[in-house]
Specification:
about 150 residues, mainly alpha, elongated
Length: about 150
């Protein structure tokens, strides 16, 4: 039977894995666009996710748990799918933005699941709330970007 810290460490490690996948996905999106503004946007998102990952690593180790994951097979497959869509799509920027929107919505669900834990340490809750807020705010940005491309 897992202790509370092991269970929370596992949940944060899962979130870290998805955060690393998102960072790599945004880096891939940067490669798949020629639109200057979108390229800069995706670069900024990749950097933000890198920072999120570093913050999550600190929270995991503060619980006395090990950092376990750096990315997933599912994330790698998704990035390959983004490449294929970009290759065959007449409007790869639009399809990339749609994939980003889908990924951000999934990330919000992950954050909500962990934030619904009743007894998160204050520092963990603060980090997760800040990161969730940034992702939620960005959903509107992605929707606006679909209009300017």
């Amino acid at each position: 039977m897992n202790t509370w810290t092991e269970t929370m460490g596992n949940k944060l490690n899962d979130l870290l894995e998805k955060t690393n996948d998102a960072e790599k996905g945004f880096r891939k999106a940067t490669e798949n666009t020629n639109h200057t503004y979108l390229k800069k946007y995706f670069q900024n998102k990749a950097q933000e996710r890198n920072e999120f990952g570093n913050e999550l690593k600190l929270e995991i180790t503060s619980l006395g748990e090990e950092i376990e994951k750096e990315g997933s097979f599912t994330g790698a497959a998704h990035r390959a799918w983004m490449d294929i869509k970009a290759l065959f799509s007449l409007d790869s920027d639009e399809s990339t933005l749609k994939e980003a929107l889908k990924g951000e919505k999934a990330a919000l669900e992950e954050y909500d699941e962990i934030l619904n834990e009743t007894s998160l340490p204050y520092s963990t809750q603060s980090v997760l709330l800040k990161q969730r807020e940034a992702i939620a705010k960005d959903l509107n940005t992605i929707k606006r970007l679909e209009d300017i491309r």
